[in-house]
Write a structure and sequence with these properties.
19 helices, 3 domains, alpha/beta, Fumarate Reductase Iron-sulfur Protein, Chain B, domain 2, Rossmann fold, single chain, disordered N terminus, three-stranded parallel β-sheet
């Protein structure tokens, strides 16, 4: 007997599943741990109901990579149901175990609760950005990541992005009033904190009269573009930095003249690729950097492999096998550099290489695509 309307609605959603097993074939986690199965979770929801589905710790093992939804012939919204179930679980006091001592999540919760400015712009050249303007560079959690992952220098992504802006004669608006976009909190079920962050950012952006937002974070991109518009109507354009760069290469404003003699491949982040549908812009960029030898991996675009971590909830032995498999794929493509357009992918792959990788990969480096672009700019000092 159905317990309530929410259970009924969720079950009806799951009835779209025809048990074809395509989700199992494509699920990255199932490849390294056959005990986890999207199809099995579908059956659990159908047979046991929402309460059992929400209270099972398997709920937090899903990488929310959208690979299953990409291949499902029935348009089953499994990942979206996982997102909703995590909200239900959190409201009932069931939480996931966030890695890294929950410090990252605690920082974002503090941002949501405290109406104080952070010193977010420390380490950036104050002459590279402005206090006002129509283009806003949303930096996201890059400075926060550097407090936890001190060896990855995530702020370098912001510095390279500003170098590209400045080369175009643009000083984008930046402010210490910016807060975390709230992506991790939203996808871990903590909607109340997410809404506080989102509404704070929305008010700030509206008060400053922003016309366009550019971000170098794949998760900020889909949150600002898709999730914030569910809260209220937004009057600005949201672009990922790869879209912004590719646009300016096409219109002739951005010229990459300096040779960058590197063999590279590109890793499509789940959120930028499968979710945001930004596939062409990064490749158009790499085709226009002089000297770059761009090599595609076997699994790309919609079929790109996940970096193995979602919401900092599930970094474990299974994750390491997924990361090793993806990095071997990059090496087999003949690349010396694996580029990505997601700060978290960059952190996760670098953490794997800095630890005890299953296979030695001394010659492979992981970097953000903005670094290659910045190297391709011929500045006044280069001339």
């Amino acid at each position: 007997m159905m317990k309530d309307k929410k259970t009924q609605d969720s079950k009806n959603q799951k009835l779209e599943c025809i048990q074809c097993n395509k989700c199992m074939v494509t699920c990255p986690l199932n490849k390294v741990d056959p005990t986890y199965s999207p199809r099995g979770r579908n059956l659990q929801l159908l047979m046991e109901g929402q309460e059992s589905f929400s209270e099972d710790q398997q709920l937090y093992r899903c990488l929310t990579c959208f690979q299953c939804m990409e291949t499902c012939p029935s348009n089953n919204q499994y990942v979206e149901v996982v997102k909703s179930a995590r909200k239900d679980a959190h409201e009932k006091g069931h939480c996931d175990e966030c890695k890294h001592g929950s410090i990252l999540r605690s920082i974002t919760q503090l941002q949501a609760d405290l109406n104080v400015k952070q010193n977010r712009l420390e380490g950036l050249d104050p002459d590279s950005y402005a206090d006002s303007g129509e283009i806003f560079y949303f930096m996201g959690c890059l400075p926060i990541f550097d407090q936890v992952f001190t060896h990855t220098d995530s702020l370098k992504i912001a510095k390279n992005t500003l170098k590209i802006f400045n080369h175009l004669g643009i000083k984008p608006m930046m402010t210490d009033e910016e807060k975390c976009c709230g992506y991790d909190l939203l996808w871990s079920g903590q909607e109340e904190y997410y809404l506080k962050l989102a509404k704070s950012n929305l008010k700030m952006l509206k008060d400053k009269g922003v016309k366009k937002i550019v971000t170098s974070c794949a998760e900020c991109f889909i949150t600002l573009k898709d999730e914030y518009s569910k809260i209220e109507k937004i009057d600005w354009e949201v672009q990922h930095v790869t879209e912004f760069i590719a646009e300016n290469i096409k219109n002739g404003k951005l010229k990459l003249d300096k040779e960058v003699a590197k063999q590279v491949t590109y890793h499509d982040p789940c959120r930028l690729g499968r979710v945001g549908k930004v596939f062409d812009a990064p490749r158009e960029i790499l085709e226009n950097v002089p000297g770059v030898d761009f090599k595609e991996m076997e699994f790309t675009k919609e079929n790109s492999a996940c970096c193995g971590v979602g919401n900092f909830s599930n970094c474990d032995t299974h994750t390491k096998f997924l990361q090793n498999e993806r990095l071997l794929e990059a090496k087999e493509a003949g690349a010396k550099y694996m580029l990505t357009a997601c700060p978290k992918c960059r952190i996760h792959f670098n953490c794997y290489l800095d630890g005890e990788p299953i296979d030695k990969m001394e010659e492979l480096e992981i970097t953000d695509i903005t670094e290659i672009v910045a190297q391709g700019l011929e500045t006044g000092e280069d001339k």
